[in-house]
């Protein structure tokens, strides 16, 4: 199953009365591969597991959609994002 070119973003919040703490979108590149786009965590959400929750949600959805590989690109100086990627098997 191919996703629309840009799939609806997912966001996470500690409660319904607050804006999202973290958000990310998933963009299909080719059959079986998608890329996490515009991933962001508010400063107060960093270190709380919000980013892991979003990636875990995308991972579960991707399996249902037949996506076998999710790419999370980040700059070499973004140490938090690189650590998050490694948690999920990234390089």
What labels describe this entry?
alpha+beta, Aminopeptidase, 2 helices, 91 residues, 4-stranded mixed β-sheet, 30% strand
At a glance:
It contains 2 helices and 4 strands; from the N terminus they run E-E-E-H-E-H.
Secondary-structure map with pairings?
Elements: E1 7-12, E2 22-30, E3 33-41, H1 50-64, E4 69-71, H2 79-87
Parallel strand pairs: 3-4
Antiparallel strand pairs: 1-2, 2-3
CATH class: Alpha Beta
Mean pLDDT figure: 76
Distance between the termini: 27 Å
Query: What's the alpha carbon Rg, rounded to whole Å?
Result: 13 Å
Q: Which strand-content bin applies to the residues? A: 25-35%
Number of helical stretches of at least 4 residues: 2
Q: Label the overall shape.
A: globular
- Strand order across the largest sheet: 1-2-3-4
Q: What are the segments in which pLDDT stays under 50 over at least 5 consecutive residues?
A: 1-6
Polypeptide structure, described:
26% of the residues lie in helices and 30% in strands. With 91 residues, the chain is of the alpha+beta class. Strands 1-2-3-4 form a four-stranded mixed beta sheet. The longest helix is centred in the middle third of the chain and has 15 residues. The radius of gyration is 13 Å and the shape is globular. The N terminus is likely disordered.
């Amino acid at each position: 199953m191919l996703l629309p070119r840009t799939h609806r973003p997912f966001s996470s919040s500690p409660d319904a009365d607050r804006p999202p703490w973290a958000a990310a979108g998933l963009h299909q590149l080719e059959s079986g591969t998608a890329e996490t786009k515009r991933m962001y965590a508010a400063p107060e959400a960093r270190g709380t597991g919000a980013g892991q929750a979003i990636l875990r949600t995308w991972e579960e959805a991707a399996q249902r959609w037949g996506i076998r590989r999710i790419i999370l690109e980040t700059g070499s100086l973004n140490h938090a994002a690189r650590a998050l990627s490694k948690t999920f098997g990234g390089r």
